[in-house]
Amino acid sequence: MDEGTVALILAPLIIFLIFVAPIWLILHYRSKKQVNQGLTAEDQIALQELAGKAEMMADRIKTLEAILDSEAPEWRNRA
Question: Does 26 share its domain with 46?
């Protein structure tokens, strides 16, 4: 390989190693740290609220299914 070809390969590699790689590593490990920290207190509260709403919705569905079962026993077989 001649000097021109080496320069064409080496220049982008050096730019990558000096600028891109350090930023990439910093952002990568920062995101890993955030993932490992878990849920924030705000997230935990929101998750508890959603779980409560899901339980209420499940109870409502059971009630509606019981009403439908008593008033229209064949409703589950309809398409």
Answer: no
**Cβ-count burial of 70 within 10 angstroms (0-12 exposed, 13-18 middle, 19+ buried)?**
exposed
**Which residues span the domain enclosing 16?**
1-38
Q: How far apart are CA 63 and CA 59, in angstroms?
A: 6
**Global pTM value:** 0.50
Say how many domains are in the chain: 2
Whether residues 29 and 59 fall in one domain: no
Q: Chunked in runs of 10, what are the mean pLDDT values of the chain (79 residues)?
A: 80 90 92 78 92 96 94 85
